[in-house]
Design a protein that fits this description.
The complex is a heterodimer of chains A (1114) and B (606). Chain A is mainly β. Chain A is built from eleven helices and 55 strands. Classes of the chains: A mainly beta (1114), B mainly alpha (606).
Chain lengths: 1114, 606
């Protein structure tokens, strides 16, 4: 209510006839929430008009917002008085402002007569839940004029007049048309197209589908889950996406790639999935998770058959962030943390080693290996150079390493062009020690710089151009050890176990490096680490793509075309400054007490140099025509696409490898849906593969899918129980043309063999040549793939469960012929499409989220199970059924079935079958499967499961309360075994090599003949019996449950730092790989088993990190 | 609008290009294997590549001298103990050897050589650049190599599968290659006939210096001689233990009737080599024209292509394995080939008598008061007055080394270093693993020019066939079918003459001639054991003579390597008890191979 107070009125007189008309004088104004009086004063200043009003009339009136260019004063006034309880009229040069009832009607100007007026419209767009929506496109109907909403959902748009109609659209939401009817502020809510909040998922070839419409089995990962304190995003996927099986076998910085399979393994040949980043086959290990917009895996035929001969092993689709019109968002993310090992192998100390060696020898009737005095001296450490007792792992590792990361990104733009730019930095130092005496640095340090830029240009009304350039550069520093010819540091771990604790000290005085040859050589792990030089590995990858989208709506509505061209290049470059110093072994002390050395290797004491370069480049080209239209309740879509790629590997070693790797294909996809109730889809891929002869080169891979959204049926009345019920199924064919280790199978190869030397002076050396591979008329592997999916929502949309069961049958698997006997003398057996594998499994994703009072709770879990079986593998007929490999999993191991240890009574009983060799009580007893009284190769059968887990699961929960959030994520594996490599079984190599694991005391002894002991009766020297022959005693259960992430965060109150331009700020603490629960105690079970360098726990273990970080949005 | 039109045009042209590709050039896009890539057909178009293919066939001649990892023939015989207990020979000697053990399975490798040889013979005629004489010669070389590979398979596996002469198609069906084994006699006939067929096309002499090492007539004959000697031996000549050793169709694989005629064939074949004028025993003479036995016996292996060599194989790193394993630890060697006491005992005394001959003068008590040429003062009397070949072959406690190297770094002293084999001695037991478990080390063939510590290995060839073996083969075969033939004594005595020990016969300086066939048989076997010691023969000899159950089973002796003084050290102790079962006469054929050929039977006992 206005309180009326009479005050003086300002009246200024001007000469009649001179006065300008207020509907003729034009003016530019820009009022943003100003008072009415202020607005009028501004107009007075800009024109020759004077305003007359009663102060009281203008007090407490709403603030005015109005912008106009070249509007008449009358229009301006009409605009600003639109919602005011006042009116105005002109008297000469005066404009009188009064309440309408006091106005002189005849003086009023009829505003309807006025010309159209530019009006500034402000608005806010929310979604159904009332949350602001960013990126909604807002345009003036019938014009090209448009903008999009900012992060707060707000927009500003100048329209031709207050009667304009606004058009709002957002993918996955119902477009809206809003007649302004004179309003200049708009508040509206967008309605999602589907019931389920309009989730949109990325499907093949850049297409997006509403989640309700998808028929293929695919799972998506919430990309925020990728933001873990690790360098390599392949390592965080396991357990977070259903259907994906991942294991990380090394934690070495820069070399910590996880192995990934989709729905397990379905073939004996190549089973690695296809990875597409922005539609192009690329590696994603080093992409900064901050740059990732979406992460999807495609699992069944209906989603992968479009990839033809590339899609059979499943597809990982990653899209990176693109520009977005609206205000410029700046986001900064930084964390820093400490790292340490999840678990290192633990070894027995020197004294235990010597005591056990003596026991091993004596218990088999031999002499003690070490004298009591030597054991005593080892214990007292009175002469650590001659009687050392080295814990190698302690000598080579620091307690903690470090990692840290920063990422700065900017995103914004307008309707004409938008951008996304980001730069990232990551570094990690390993846990290896360095030696202060060395002039060079051997510590592991991995540094990576990422950049990503995406530019979207609306070139014309119907043409959009996307340009993306992304890449990374990494630099790694590593110790110069290359004993195994590779660049990884596994050999340091291997030596730390191979060289037993009492052999020699880590270094002799004066920096003499110890070494002794035992038929292979025992290096000091410490010396390998610090005394063999260093190497740097520099790698980079540039990914560039140019995409043009053309709306062909002028031909027919819903038609569009897309063209993508990409060029990628990568390079890597290893510079090795290494040496292999002279080595010594101390045999005693001379009369003066100085160590007496023998030279065990004359080496090269100064750094040498060698290098290793590699790289690749790839062209990819894709053109597609898309069609999507709605006819009432019918919705149809179609796509026809052509693609081809061409990749050159710069590290090729031979002619065949140097030829570009090429593929091409065309693809079709047709979708139909009726009223979001009945869904159907047909897709095909038609691909050519270079590996096959021209007449077998092309493959056609069709698939079909159908779905039924029961909950959208009119007769459906159970909305109170299940808010969504959807059934879907797909069946189709996919293929694979990848043959491991063999390209162009249709071409025979000739290869160099060994040299033979003729000549009196042995100088006439001739390199042998022979047929290496015979040509084969092979063709692609095909897979028939059935998938049934079931999705529902319940508990008031709070719980969502998606379940897929699948059955796959892979046929024509490339194998070398298994029935060819050795006596045919064929060097490499013929490849053929010989194998068949069936696999089946289930993937489940469950999500639950609900606020409970002020606490928000969300829970998410995934479960992946698969099993596979060889149906045909071209193996010859076996004499006993347990030797048959058909029916076994793709990867199986065979061995004797251990049934405990022989007792004295059994040893003396001739009826009990004996293993071969020197067998005593306490040695492992095996089942005589064929009952012939002899334990031999006919008594082996499958033992344990593969070391790729059959069950992978993950579950996590996050809880939010006020500004705090706490989330935890567990990941686990099940149905997984590995074989304990034989390398470090007690004294298997006598004194030649091999430390003992710390559990050595857990053994069978005559005094304590435990059947549950870990080790059998010790023995000294090679396999005098079959205790260490492949047998089930050494199969270890590799399952584990790991607290992968524990994240505690605090978000500052909104607006708390507004004056610094900070929109949002979150601080957090993350613990990664915090603890692991596993029955296997000797090392991190995720490293697996195996033997040799890298096996038996001799790998850089996975690491645990503790990080603190901050995330700021400006 | 101009911008729009432009973009649209660009877009259309891109589509046009795409369409063009989709219709026209796509098949080319994937057909990229260059036409001028080397194919197997191309190999036989040029002389150089054809010769490369033949060189490939030669590479299947195994290097026998890589005893511990490459070839087990010494470590599995009663001659040698390979020190390292992580080597397969160790556990195999202890009986840890079942049908699935694939250590030292050369089945695959020799059959690959056979296939390559057959394929070469099939195709060499196509080569337009090769003169026809060379084609004939090369084909004959391949033919002999193939026969040699069969012979190598026969000595390990007994009767084997003789494949058709044409290489079998790689995609043949399982029934097309379900061959049964051929009987041992068939195998022997085949190899002999193949060699006979090849001989007319082979050159006799070495030819140009570049061609040394190729198969010559003498080599072909030597292969045949040794193979026929094996084929005449008791293991496969009327061995009734193998009465049940049959193919599935009942074919006997080893003859059950002893046939003395096989010995004649063997003798004739050896004599054919002996009669070639190209070969003679290698001898070094002193100024007065007297044989220097030590140098002769040592250097026959060190002087490349000397007159005794019938075939030598060159290996890239010389004889690294021989030099390294045969050198004692103090010189940087690995001391890892330890002759057993049994093989030490086999050497004669300097007076030409066996140590068990009461007249030999051999004693195990006492120690040498003064240094001898090859040992230092204090050496056990066991090693005094032994024959030159003993000093050539064996490093024993307090023996002098073969060169003046002073340490493992290759430093040189003024005199050979004395090797101490007792515990704590310069090459005896210590914390590391490079010490002999028998107290001996095999120095035969170790090159004095090599410095093993710094790995400076003198290059040379490996002797595969030499004339002395032919003498011994001939004498043995002759004694079996024509005892009393004068050639028996003649050729054994030629060996003894070169070895510098008294010969058999009636002359004053001689020792009594063995009386009768059996006595000669033992004398020949003794002589063979000594002359061919550590040359990969003993393993096969004990088997073909069917004596391995006695020689290769039970306690194996050495010196007491745990003793810390020479006196305590010099006594016989058992270092291991070996297991030899009847099945070990022939090697196991892997079950995986049997599975692929239903007509292939396993060797007896496995």
């Amino acid at each position: 209510m206005l309180s009326v107070t009479i005050l003086c009125s300002l009246v200024l007189l001007a000469g009649p006839g001179n006065a300008q008309r207020m509907d003729k004088v034009k003016v530019d104004v820009q009022f943003k929430g100003v008072g009415l009086k202020q607005a009028l004063r501004t107009l007075e200043a800009k024109t020759s008009f004077h305003f007359t009003y009663r102060d009281a009339d203008l007090d407490n009136t709403p603030l005015v917002s109005f912008e106009a260019r070249q509007a008449t004063v009358a229009q301006v006034l009409k605009g600003i008085f639109l919602n005011q309880p006042l009116t105005f009229y002109q008297q000469d040069a005066n404009i009188i402002i009064k309440k309408p009832d006091e106005a002189r009607i005849d003086d009023l100007i009829l505003t309807d007569d006025l010309a159209p007026l530019s009006v500034v419209i402000r608005g806010k767009v929310n979604n159904e839940k009332g949350e602001p929506m960013e990126g909604v496109s807002v345009s003036e109907k019938g014009t090209v004029n448009g903008t999009s909403t900012n992060a707060q959902g707000q927009f500003t748009l100048i329209v031709a007049g207050a009667s304009a109609v606004l058009k709002l659209s957002y993918i996955g939401y119902q477009s809206q048309e809003l007649p302004l009817n004179g309003q200049t502020t708009v508040l509206t809510a967008m309605q999602s197209l589907a019931n389920d909040l309009g989730d949109v998922v990325v499907v093949a070839y850049g297409q997006r589908q509403k989640k309700i419409e998808t028929l293929g089995a695919q799972s998506t990962l919430n990309v925020t889950e990728l933001k873990q304190p690790v360098a390599n995003i392949t390592t965080v996927l396991a357990g977070r996406v259903s259907g994906l099986v991942g294991v990380q076998r090394s934690g070495e910085p820069g070399r910590d790639n996880a192995d990934i399979w989709i729905r397990g393994i379905a073939t004996m040949s190549n089973s690695t999935p296809l990875v597409l980043v922005d539609g192009v086959e690329r590696s994603f290990n080093n992409i900064d998770p901050n740059d990732i917009e979406s992460f999807t895996i495609l699992k069944d035929a209906s989603s992968t058959s479009v990839f033809g001969v590339r899609g059979a092993n499943g597809v990982i689709l990653i899209t990176t962030k693109k520009g977005r019109p609206g205000r410029t968002d700046i986001s900064l993310d930084f964390y820093t943390g400490l790292t340490n090992f999840t678990r290192l192998p633990e070894t027995a100390d020197g004294v235990a080693y010597m005591q056990m060696a003596n026991e091993a020898s004596v218990t088999r009737g031999g002499n003690p290996i070490y004298s009591d005095s030597a054991i005593h001296k080892t214990y007292t450490q009175e002469d650590p150079y001659l009687y050392p007792n080295v814990n190698w792992f302690k000598e080579i590792f620091n307690k903690f390493g470090r990692n840290r990361k920063a990422n700065l990104s900017m995103r914004g733009g307008n309707e004409k062009s938008s951008f996304y730019v980001s730069a990232g930095y990551y570094d990690e130092t390993g846990l290896f020690k360095t030696d202060g005496l060395q002039k060079y640095n051997t510590s592991i340090k991995f540094t990576r710089y990422n950049f990503s830029s995406a530019l979207t240009i609306k070139a014309t009304k119907t043409t959009t151009v996307d340009l993306g350039i992304k890449g990374w550069i990494s630099n790694g520093n590593y110790p110069g050890t290359t004993t195994d010819g590779s660049t990884a540091t596994d050999d340091i771990f291997y030596m730390a176990l191979k060289t037993y604790p009492i052999l020699y000290p880590k270094m002799y005085p004066d920096g003499k490096e110890p070494f002794i040859s035992t038929g292979g050589g025992l290096n000091s792990a410490y010396a390998l680490l610090v005394n063999h030089g260093y190497m740097t590995i520099f790698q980079n990858q540039v990914m560039s793509d140019l995409q043009v989208k053309q709306d062909l709506g002028f031909i027919t509505k819903g038609l569009s075309a897309r063209f993508l061209y990409s060029f990628d290049a990568s390079a890597n470059n290893t510079l090795m400054r290494t040496k292999n110093p002279s080595s010594y072994y101390a045999t005693g002390r001379d009369a003066n007490g100085n160590l007496v050395y023998t030279v065990t290797g004359s080496g090269q004491d100064y750094l040498g140099f060698s290098r290793n370069n590699g790289g690749s480049r790839q062209f990819y080209l894709e053109g597609a025509i898309n069609y999507a239209n709605t006819f009432g309740r019918h919705k149809v879509g179609g796509m026809i696409l052509y693609n081809q790629s061409d990749k050159v590997d710069a590290t090729a070693n031979d002619l065949i490898g140097s030829i570009p790797y090429r593929s091409l294909g065309s693809v079709g996809r047709f979708t139909y849906s009726y009223d979001d109730r009945y869904l159907a889809e047909a897709t095909f891929g038609y691909n050519g593969a270079e590996n096959f002869s021209p007449n077998k080169r092309f493959g056609f891979f069709p698939s079909f899918a159908a779905g039924w959204v029961i909950s959208n049926e009119k007769f459906y009345h159970f909305n109170n129980v299940f808010q969504l019920l959807k059934l879907r199924g797909s069946y189709g064919q996919v293929g694979s043309s990848r043959i491991d280790g063999r390209r162009f199978a249709y071409v025979g190869t000739v290869a160099n063999t060994n040299n033979y030397w003729y000549g009196q002076d042995r100088g006439n050396s001739i390199t042998g040549v022979d047929i290496s591979d015979y040509p084969v008329d092979a063709t692609w592997e095909t897979e028939k793939d059935l998938n049934l999916g079931f999705e529902f929502k319940t508990l008031g949309n709070a719980l969502y469960i998606q379940t897929d069961v699948f059955k796959r049958r892979r046929e024509n698997i490339f194998l070398s012929r298994g029935v060819v006997p050795d006596f045919l003398g064929i060097r490499n057996n013929l490849l053929g499409n010989l194998g068949t594998v069936e696999s089946e499994g289930i993937d489940i994703t469950a999500e639950y989220s609900k606020p409970i009072g002020k606490v928000t709770v969300s829970i998410r879990g995934t479960f992946t199970y698969n099993k596979n079986k060889r149906v045909e593998d071209d193996s010859p007929a076996q004499p006993y059924p347990w030797l048959e490999s058909r029916g076994l999993p793709v990867f199986f191991r065979r061995g004797y079935q251990a049934t405990g240890y022989y007792t004295d009574a059994e040893i003396n009983d001739p009826k009990v079958a004996r293993t071969t060799g020197v067998v005593q009580a306490g040695d492992l007893k095996f089942k005589d499967l064929n009952g012939d009284g002899v334990i031999d190769g006919n008594d082996v059968s499958v033992m344990g499961r593969d070391q790729v887990p059959q069950i992978l699961y993950g579950f996590g929960s996050s809880i939010g309360w006020k500004q705090f959030s706490l989330s935890a994520f567990f990941q686990g594996t099940g149905l997984v075994d590995f074989y304990l490599g034989n390398d470090f079984m007690p004294f298997r190599n006598g004194s030649a090599r091999g430390s003992l694991y710390s559990n050595i005391k857990d053994r069978w002894t005559p005094d304590n003949p435990r059947q549950d002991a870990f080790y059998p009766r010790l023995s000294y020297g090679a396999d005098i019996n079959q205790n260490y022959a492949g047998n089930s005693h050494w199969v270890m259960n590799g399952q584990f449950l790991r607290l992968k992430t524990l994240d505690f965060g605090y978000t500052l109150k909104k607006g708390a730092l507004h004056k610094y331009g900070v929109q949002n700020m979150r601080m957090y603490i993350i613990a990664y790989n915090l603890f692991t629960i596993t029955p296997f105690k000797l090392w991190d079970p995720e490293l697996g088993g195996g033997s040799g360098i890298g096996g038996a726990g001799t790998r850089y273990p996975n690491i645990r990190t503790f990080s603190v970080g901050v995330n700021v949005n400006f | 609008m101009l911008g729009f039109m432009k973009t649209k045009n660009i877009l259309y042209s891109i589509y046009a290009i795409g369409l063009l590709c989709a219709t026209g050039s796509c098949s080319k896009f994937l057909s990229q294997v260059p036409d001028d890539k080397l194919t197997i057909d191309d190999v036989f178009k040029k002389k150089s590549t054809t010769e490369q293919y033949l060189a490939n066939v030669y590479t299947y001649i195994r290097q026998e001298g890589d005893w511990n990892n490459g070839s087990p023939w010494e470590g599995l015989s009663d001659e040698i103990d390979v020190t390292y207990n992580d080597y397969p020979t160790y556990s195999m000697n202890l009986g840890q050897w079942d049908r699935n053990r694939d250590s030292y399975t050369y089945w695959r490798s020799f059959y690959q050589g056979i296939r390559s040889a057959s394929y070469f013979m099939q195709r060499v005629d196509e080569c337009p650049e090769l003169q026809s004489e060379l084609k004939i010669q090369y084909k004959a070389e391949a033919r002999v190599l193939r026969a040699y590979f069969y012979a190598m398979l026969m000595r390990q596996y007994g009767p084997v599968i003789i494949l058709p002469n044409l290489a079998i198609a790689p995609d043949a069906s399982i029934d097309e290659f379900s061959f049964p084994r051929n009987s041992y006699d068939e195998c022997a006939d085949y190899v002999a006939k193949e060699i006979d067929a090849a001989i007319p096309s082979l050159p006799v002499s070495q030819g140009s210096t570049q061609e040394y090492g190729r198969i010559k007539k003498g080599m072909a004959l030597a292969v045949k001689a040794r193979m026929l000697l094996y084929a005449a031996s008791p293991l496969v000549n009327g061995n009734t233990d193998y009465a049940g050793f049959k193919n599935p169709d009942g074919t006997l694989l080893v003859s059950q009737q002893y046939d003395a005629g096989k010995w004649k064939k063997a003798a004739d074949a050896a004599k054919a080599v002996i009669d070639m004028p190209d070969y003679s025993l290698y001898k070094e003479l002193d100024g007065s024209g007297k044989i220097k036995p030590y140098e002769s016996c040592k250097n026959v292996f060190l002087k490349d292509w000397n007159s005794e060599i019938i075939l030598a194989r060159v290996v890239s790193d010389g004889m690294y394995s021989i030099d390294k394993n045969g050198s004692p630890y103090v010189l940087g060697g690995w001391s890892s080939w330890g002759p057993t006491q049994q093989s030490v005992d086999a050497f004669f005394m300097a007076n030409g008598r066996s140590i068990d001959d009461p007249a030999s003068g051999y004693t195990e008590s006492g120690f040498a008061a003064a240094a001898g040429t090859w040992y230092a003062a204090g050496a056990s009397n066991m090693y005094v007055n032994r024959e030159p070949r003993f000093y050539v072959d064996v490093t024993f406690n307090l023996s002098k080394w073969i060169n003046n190297a002073s340490n493992n770094n290759g430093g040189t002293g003024s005199a050979p270093i004395t090797i101490q084999m007792y515990k704590g001695g310069n090459s005896g037991q210590y914390t590391g693993r490079n010490w002999s478990r028998t107290g001996y080390c095999a120095r035969k063939m170790v090159n004095p020019s090599s410095l093993v510590g710094p790995d400076k290995i003198a290059a040379r060839t490996e002797v595969v066939y030499r004339l002395a073996e032919m003498y011994l083969d001939y004498a043995e075969a002759l004694n079996e079918y024509d005892p009393g033939n004068a050639d028996i004594k003649k050729y054994i005595n030629l060996i003894r003459e070169r070895a510098g020990i008294p010969q058999y016969g009636s002359a004053v300086e001689n020792i009594p001639e063995p009386a009768g066939q059996e006595a000669w048989r033992q004398a020949i076997r003794k002589e063979r054991r000594v002359e061919l010691a550590f040359e990969y023969h003993r393993y096969f000899d004990t088997r073909r003579w069917k004596i391995a159950e006695q020689t290769d089973a039970g306690p194996m002796y050495g010196m007491d390597v745990n003793a810390t003084t020479t006196v305590d050290f010099s006594k016989r102790v058992v270092f291991e008890n070996r297991v030899f079962l009847k099945k070990n006469y022939l090697w196991n054929i892997l079950q995986s191979e049997l599975n692929k050929d239903k007509n292939l039977v396993e060797n007896p006992g496995w």
